[in-house]
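Example record

One chain of 261 residues, shown exactly as stored in the release files.
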Amino acid sequence: MKLNVALIQMDIQLGLPEENIKKAVQRIEEASKQNADIVVLPELWTTGYDLERLVEIGDANGDNLKKLMSGLARQHRINIVAGSVANKTGNGIFNTLYAFNREGEQIGEYSKLHLIRLMQEEKFIAPGFTKGNFMLENIPAAGVICYDIRFPEWIRAHVLDGASLLFVPAEWPAQRLSHWRNLLITRAIENQCYVIACNRIGRDNNNAFAGHSIIIDPWGDVIAEADGENETILFAEIETDLVDEVRSRIPIFEDRRPEHY
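Predicted structure tokens for this chain:
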């Protein structure tokens, strides 16, 4: 199956959900007019890393985000991997990814498991505890978030549950751009899956962000990549049958010997 993917690489205004939502809606509508099948947003795109104010500006149970993205997906007949938002619950604030199909139905939800201490995330956000697998267009997919890609065993767990498309919303800093690219390419090669990673650009009070949203095929070849300076919608066509082809040619999953690991 061929699918057109659109990554919305955007600058995020720190602590200003209304401005960020307005921009994201415009970009989703632009992508839909260019025949996107799947639109992907970055991490914490409504608030940025305004961690100390998440109690004030976060989204209670993700309700506002879910209503908005469900309506846009249904209106434009597109799948939306809606990045992640600060999800306020009775058990704490989570960094939560949501996904929706063309009918506007929620098909996926994942709260970030690995919290990055370099950005003090663990002081304000609670870790998730379940995997991010879901079905998109009858294709096994999964979502993880930013820092998660440093944990290959976590990515492999999703692939062992069937994922052939891996979505990665992020706010990855510019000073570690080489890590971003190398880790994502490695995750694609070792798991023989598509990696579809949407990063932000711009700055907040403490960080500059790398951009370089990227789409990588199951061979580890980069098929589309944005720059690190500009807001853009990055488009690429993926061929989902390539996953099975690569896995049949180099059958690493059949050759695994986990009983010895």
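Notes: The chain has a mean pLDDT of 98.
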